[in-house]
Design a protein that fits this description.
12-stranded antiparallel barrel, 2 helices
């Protein structure tokens, strides 16, 4: 009897560690099964804060600066005498800064009307997956431009406020897959001064933008703005731009064709005087280079 009891105790002592280990593994698995996936924000719907002309749903990471140079040449239909527009060019240079995950600001200067511009962009809602996910990004943009050209008639009583214009925009966008992103952006542009009394001070438009990734480093992009008012027949038109993005490390190089010559919201929405229907197009390129100007916080 004592011998049988000894065998029983010995067998129990051998089985007990295996039982406790299995129980511990089962407890850990139950914790993993009950843990909900963490919330993750969608990135790289677009490769930069702008599609071509207009703002995109994308934001810069905190502490990142985007230095951007935009070139828009003359009309291609000018032929060889102006080397298909390449003999003429207008430019915009800009600096954008990421402050938080959903807030950024920037400013720029255009040779077109020698305009200065600045804007802020904030997203109260951002597309995400996991716990508390949201299906799209909602971003708000507010900006101002200032014309610095000399007064057309210096003898008149001119006001500084006449140089200013403002724009307000809502961007609703979604990254549908790794390849496709689409957005819509209702916009209002207010000009303090317009050339003719027949032209409205407030122009309302809706923009449409998209990106389709065709390979690891190449994507097709497009943006189009439809004006609800402010269009004068034979004078100005809706801007449409088609482009190809080429990613090269820290650079994004974009080749595009557009009927717009201006490169800020006021200019390309209210002053596009060429049309695709007559092949009055301009070749251009944008170059974006990002810099990490603030160290990323250490994550423990």
């Amino acid at each position: 009897m004592k011998k049988q009891l000894l065998y029983f105790i010995l067998g129990l002592s051998l089985m007990l560690p295996s039982f406790l280990k299995a129980q511990k593994t089962e407890d850990l698995l139950s914790l993993v099964d009950n843990e909900k996936p963490k919330k993750e924000y969608v990135k790289y719907a677009f490769k930069s804060p702008r599609v071509i002309n207009g703002n995109s749903m994308e934001f810069l990471a905190p502490g990142v600066m985007d230095f951007r140079i935009l070139h828009r040449f003359g009309q291609i239909d000018q032929g060889f005498k102006n080397f298909f527009g390449l003999d003429q060019a207008s430019m915009r240079m800009s600096f954008d800064f990421g402050v938080t995950r959903n807030f950024m600001f920037g400013f720029g200067r255009s040779t077109f009307k020698k305009e200065l511009d600045g804007q802020i962009k904030y997203a109260p809602l951002m597309q995400s997956s996991g716990q508390g996910s949201f299906p799209f990004t909602l971003a708000l943009v507010a900006g101002m431009t200032m014309n610095t050209l000399p007064w057309a008639n210096p003898s008149n009583q001119n006001y500084f406020s006449s140089r200013l214009a403002y724009y307000y925009q809502t961007i609703i966008g979604r990254k549908f897959s790794e390849n496709l992103s689409l957005q819509i952006s209702p916009t209002m542009v207010h000009n303090n001064l317009v050339p003719l009394t027949s032209q409205p001070n407030d122009v309302f438009a809706t923009g449409f933008g998209g990106r389709y990734k065709v390979s690891k480093r190449i994507a097709l992009t497009w943006d189009y703005f439809y004006l609800f008012n402010g269009i004068q027949k034979g004078s100005n038109y809706n801007p449409l731009s088609l482009g190809v993005d080429i990613e090269t490390g820290g650079h994004v190089f974009q080749l595009h064709v557009s009927n717009a010559s201006g490169m800020n919201e006021r200019a390309f929405i209210t002053e596009t005087t060429n049309t695709w229907s007559k092949a009055e197009l301009r070749f251009g390129f944008n170059l974006s280079r990002v810099f990490q100007i603030k160290k990323k916080p250490n994550i423990l």
